[in-house]
Amino acid sequence: MSSERIKEAVLIIVSFVIGGVLTFVIIGGDDLISNNSSSTNSGLTCSSADCTKVVVDESGISEAVEKVYDGVLMVRNYQNDEVASTGTGFVYKIDGDNAYVMTNQHVVEGADRVTLITSNDEEIEGEVLGGDSYVDIAVVRIKSYDGIKALQLGNSENANLGDLVFTIGSPLGYEYRGSVSTGHLAGKDRLVSVSTDSNTSGSDWVMKVLQTDAAINPGNSGGPLMNTNGEVIGVISMKLVQTEVEGMGFAIPIEYINSKIETLEKGESIEWPLLGVSMINVSDAKGSYRYNFDIPNDIDSGVVVAGIEEGSGAADSDLKEGDIITKLNGEEVQDSAYLRYELYKYSVGDTIEITYIRDGKEHTTKVVLTSSNSSNQS
């Protein structure tokens, strides 16, 4: 075969292949690409047994929002017959004629009366059954109504950084109730120092929280943080409010709440363990002329024992006034907030080891934890 014929044959084959590819793209390729991009799985698996998985497509998470929208309510805190503050709550359980709403304790704190506004814009009366400042969760009971919906509680431990999350709430009050904001799970196991008393500026507690870049504003507190299947993985609790900070909101992991919620439903107080000491942060004691404690120059963190309660576990231990507690069961104690965070991992009756400094030397002692509702001691 001559070289010209070989060239002609090659050109015919190449032309045929190119023509076929162009035909595929023009006739069917666009449809195939469109089908692939228009409906993609979220990549999230359900974390509860009865969860219905939601598909995320080009319309966003509208299917997930519709699934849960009627279960999210606005919360109004009335004091002296006036609205003192507002927040968000969500139905997590329906039992006969009653439904149970979860929200933040700081949303209902000090209320003479609490009402909830449904997605149908009806205002209904609520009864606060119980709440706790350290968990920052309260339970409100309401009467069931037509269209009420309970949200599914999921599992934040199965969530991954970068997962799409969303929340529904009432930012800035009534006018913007039912607002949806989306973002990502930006962090897990964040330790954030907070105050459990709105009348004080210092921190007395450390919360382990989920971080999200979803828009969080005043009024979102108590709302659900959800994955794309509409499962609640956390409860919105706070955001960092600083001029140089943007998009840092925090939610209490649902697993931590689950361990406390039944107690609050019953109207009972959560039994926190008591060490039996009143405390002053080392940083405060070193920088004030009010206190006369002997604190070594190389000790910059920890808490000073300012007093010991009679009948407590601390009273039966080797601890004395003026000792500097630096560790609890081997975990570093930076200040009183971190001491409570470590202490409240345990239960009444547990025995823990306290590491402390006295006369510049390190010692350890065992303490059996007792129970108390005192707010100025740990």
Summarize the structure.
This protein has 378 residues and is α+β, with helices and mostly antiparallel strands. The chain is 19% helix and 37% strand. A hairpin with a 5-residue loop joins strand 6 (113-117) and strand 7.
Question: What keyword list fits this structure?
Answer:
Thrombin, subunit H; Pdz3 Domain; six-stranded antiparallel barrel
Q: If you had to describe this structure to a student in words, what would you say it looks like?
A:
The protein has 378 residues and is of the alpha+beta class. It has 2 domains: 41-270, Thrombin, subunit H (Beta Barrel), CATH 2.40.10.120; 273-371, PDZ domain (Pdz3 Domain, Roll). The chain has helices at residues 3-38, 62-68, 105-108, 254-258, 261-265, 282-286, 336-343, and strands spanning 39-41, 55-57, 72-79, 82-95, 98-103, 113-117, 123-132, 137-143, 164-169, 179-194, 205-212, 224-227, 232-239, 249-253, 273-274, 277-281, 303-308, 324-328, 331-332, 351-358, 361-368, 370-371. The protein has a 6-stranded antiparallel barrel with strand order 3-4-5-8-7-6. A 6-stranded antiparallel barrel has the order 9-10-11-14-13-12.
